[in-house]
Amino acid sequence: MNTTVSLLVEVPEILHESLRNYLEMRPDWDQDRVITAALSLFLLQNQSETAPEKLHHRQASRIYLDTMFKRPIGQN
I want to staple 74 with a disulfide (CB 3.0 to 4.6 A). Which of 2, 36, 41, 50 is the partner? Predict the structure, then answer.
């Protein structure tokens, strides 16, 4: 089962404005999808390949791909 966690974050106003403009031009995206894609890509690019992190790396990769291709997270 995939669970989600709600986050409350503060971002610079210019970043928020850029996100709002992006979402206005792309109605098939929403704030949650953008944040999920960005966070999973960040983790993919910055995690090490040590044994305990390999599983997390694969999971982050799956979440990133599911988000980019607009599939429900975890759907095969």
Answer: 2
How many beta carbons lie within 10 A of that of residue 4, not counting itself? 8
The tens digit of pLDDT for each residue in 33-74 reads: 999 999 999 988 887 666 566 777 788 888 888 888 887 665
Residue 19 has a CB neighbour count (10 Å cut-off) of: 16
Q: How many CB atoms are located within 10 Å of the residue 53 CB?
A: 13
User: Side-chain half-sphere of 17: how many Cα atoms within 13 Å?
Assistant: 3
For residue 29, with 0-12 CB atoms within 10 Å meaning exposed, 13-18 middle and 19 or more buried, which class applies?
Answer: middle
Phi-psi category of residue 70: left, alpha or beta, with phi > 0 → left and psi -120 to 50 → alpha = left
